[in-house]
Specification:
Elements lengths: L1 E3 L5 H12 L8 E3 L5 H7 L9 E5 L3 E3 L3 H9 L4 E7 L7 E9 H6 L13 H10 L3 E4 L3 E2 L16 H5 L3 E3 L11 H12 L3 H24 L1
Parallel strand pairs: 1-2, 5-7, 8-9
Antiparallel strand pairs: 3-6, 4-9, 5-6
Helix pairs in contact: 1-8, 7-8
């Protein structure tokens, strides 16, 4: 498990690591710190990959749940599958490196994960797997980013619960931007948001979403 960490948000990182410990499988985790981009950190992970059968990349603002490791293992047993994980939520095709699993031999051979002009992080890897290698990419949808997605029972929109409860993992999204800024700055953002600033309202909402994400995820992995 390679976790490229992009910020100093220890509560999120500890939550991610705790969820891996609770997933029911023995997972060797390496947190990739430092100022380098996610793509460069994942490229560095190729040095570590040959020691394992399977490599999984996971953002530090994700949590996984029972059934996650079994789904990866069963999916990758199909020789026609090159990788599995989280589908991208943007207009790009392929899987997102926030949750991406593949055999270690393939991981070592992939092109760079680095973003380039016109291609986001990991896009070149998915293109290489699907087009150059002729392998399938299999996605399982994760719960990501909605204000209500991480609520407790009775505290969210009822129609979102089946989707939320059966997800193999959750991804907060914008984890670094959601870090707690301190009460003074948070109150300032809230006030500016109420005064009509969309930018400040979004910044204030991200923090509350993060707190709700941590609370709900902690309850689910206990």
């Amino acid at each position: 498990m390679l976790v490229p960490a992009s910020g100093p948000d220890l509560p999120l990182r500890r939550l991610a690591e705790r969820s891996l410990f609770r997933c029911g499988q023995i997972v060797t985790t390496r947190v990739l710190d430092g100022p380098a981009s996610h793509g460069r950190k994942l490229d560095y992970g190729k040095i570590l990959a040959p020691r394992f059968d399977c490599v999984v990349t996971m953002d530090s603002d994700c949590v996984v749940f029972p059934g996650w490791a079994e789904w990866i293992t069963q999916t990758l047993q199909d020789p026609s599958v090159g990788a599995c994980g989280a589908p991208r939520i943007d207009t790009l095709k392929g899987l997102h490196p926030s949750m991406l699993a593949m055999g270690a031999d393939l991981y070592v051979r992939t092109p760079s994960f680095e973003a380039t002009e016109g291609k986001a992080t990991g896009v070149a890897v998915c293109e290489w797997l699907g087009i150059t290698q002729g392998l399938r990419l299999v996605g399982a949808e994760a719960v990501r980013g909605d204000w209500w997605s991480y609520g407790d029972d009775g505290d969210d929109e009822p129609e979102t619960r089946p989707h939320r409860d059966h997800a193999l993992w959750w991804h907060l999204g914008s984890g670094t931007a959601s870090a707690w800024p301190g009460w003074a700055k948070q109150m300032y953002r809230t006030a500016r948001g109420l005064a009509g600033s969309r930018l400040h309202r979004k910044a204030a909402d991200l923090v509350w979403r993060r707190r709700r994400f941590i609370r709900a995820a902690m309850r689910r992995i206990q």
